[in-house]
Specification:
This protein is α/β, with parallel strands linked by helices. The chain has one domain: Putative cyclase (Glucose Oxidase, domain 1, 3-Layer(bba) Sandwich), CATH 3.50.30. It has seven helices and 17 strands. The strands form five sheets. Strands 5-17-15-9-11-13-14-8-16 form a nine-stranded mixed sheet. Helix 7 links the parallel strand 13 and strand 14. Helix 6 packs parallel to helix 7. The longest helix has 11 residues. The two termini are about 30 Å apart. The N terminus is likely disordered.
Length: about 280
């Protein structure tokens, strides 16, 4: 049930197809209130940006399955079928998983002693402007490349300042490689050759931009070769911000102007977890 005027009532008056074509107007519940952002020096008035509209929804989530690639190479997700239709006239599966498998969120506590767990991330911080920085052409030739401060400055030269409270996402082209050995990039010595954020880029976004999250289409915010060190994880998550990894379908998105929603699991004390992540364009 929902009160009169809610999204359900709107949906009843439109076909599924017509709903997307017509577009939605998004109004934050806190429109009339000042929302204090931990990533900005001043309060953010939700009303100042005006209503946001979108006409398309893009799913940035890979399907999770047994054997989904992992950074370590271990199997992190299994499904059992203790209750089945044939036996019980009910279907009920049992999942066993590590939190950081599939398309997922990293909460601050993942790489910090006292950071927020995933359930404590404010929901208002999970619907944010989306910035896509495309380094796929360079990454195709050099899997050990990074998203650098120069890439950020080039994006801003083309599109203007990074919006306050945004999530900055690296499109390395790795989202197209899920079913290939190159997705993990693991060599004979167990090192992963995959792109990621450069540590100096993380420092730039922490110190000079009001950014809430970063994201990648690889298995790690850091370059694969940073295994065992993880400087971006420590700096970024340690600053109280979140990250998302193993994003899908990034080629369908504009470099600027979309909104990102991270459907993070609300698990008490969780360090992250598989998430349904969508972009509103």
């Amino acid at each position: 049930m929902c009160p009169r005027g809610c999204l359900h009532a709107i949906c009843e008056k439109a076909t599924r197809r017509g709903l997307l074509k017509a577009g939605f107007a998004i109004a934050a519940a806190t429109t009339a209130a000042a929302v204090t952002s931990p990533f900005a020096a001043t309060p953010v008035e939700a009303a100042t940006a005006g209503p946001k509209t979108f006409s398309d929804i893009h799913d940035l989530t890979h399907v999770l399955y047994e054997g989904f690639p992992t950074f370590s190479g271990d199997k992190w997700f299994t499904i059992e079928h203790p209750v089945t239709w044939a036996k019980d006239k009910v279907n009920l599966n049992r999942w066993t998983l590590m939190e950081h498998t599939g398309t997922h969120i990293d909460a601050p506590i993942h790489f910090s002693e006292n950071g927020k767990s995933v359930d404590l991330i404010e929901v208002a911080d999970l619907l944010v402007p989306l910035v896509i920085v495309d380094i796929s052409a360079r990454a195709a030739d050099d899997p050990d490349t990074s998203l650098t401060p120069d890439d950020i400055k080039a994006w801003e030269a083309a599109h203007g300042p990074i919006p306050e409270g945004a999530c900055v996402v690296m499109n390395s082209g790795w989202h197209r490689l899920l079913d290939t050995p190159k997705f993990t990039g693991r060599d004979a010595e167990g090192r992963n050759h995959t792109p990621g954020f450069h540590p100096e880029t993380a420092k730039l976004l922490i110190g000079e931009r009001a950014v809430k999250g970063i994201g990648v289409d690889t298995l790690s915010l850091d370059r694969g070769l940073a295994s065992g060190e993880f400087p971006v994880h420590y700096d970024w998550l340690g600053s109280g911000r979140w990250g998302v990894e193993a994003l899908a379908n990034l080629d369908t998105l504009p470099a600027a102007g979309a909104l990102l929603f991270v459907g993070a699991p609300k698990v008490r004390g969780g360090t992250g977890g598989p998430s349904r992540i969508v972009a509103l364009v």
